[in-house]
Specification:
45% strand, mainly beta, 127 residues, Immunoglobulin-like
């Protein structure tokens, strides 16, 4: 191999190594949190908004709120996360539905009557 060929191979390898270690920028995700029930009037709600935990007490249901998170499907505090507590009103068959949407797609849905529920953007949605 000629000197020029060796030099070209060195340059190509250096460029490939740089590209492999350069982080890829990604746009933030807009998600909508939703809590609905036909029988439960209110609940305490915790959610992640831009990596910050927010807590609301005695929220009237139904409740919907749209936020921006760095990566909706991340298992870290950059992801989408919704926790709901309605224990003072719990009773068998008094169902509460908790959902996270990214656009029109449901990332997570949980329907329970036990008094609390969680949803995470990392939870796979079965179709």
């Amino acid at each position: 191999m000629t000197r020029i060929g060796v030099l070209m191979m060195s340059i190509v390898c250096a460029v490939c190594a740089t590209l492999a270690t350069t982080p890829v920028a990604r746009a933030a995700d807009t998600v909508t949190y939703e809590v609905v029930s036909e029988l439960i009037p209110m609940a305490n709600v915790e959610y992640l908004d831009g990596g910050q935990r927010q807590a609301l007490q005695a929220v009237q249901l139904p409740w919907r709120f749209t936020v921006t998170v760095p990566d909706a499907a991340s298992p870290t505090s950059n992801g989408a996360e919704l926790r709901v507590d309605w224990r003072p009103y719990r009773w068998p068959t008094k169902w509460v539905t908790v959902r996270i949407y990214r656009g029109a797609r449901v990332l997570c849905e949980s329907i329970l009557d036990i008094g609390d529920a969680t949803c995470y953007g990392t939870t796979p949605q079965l179709a």
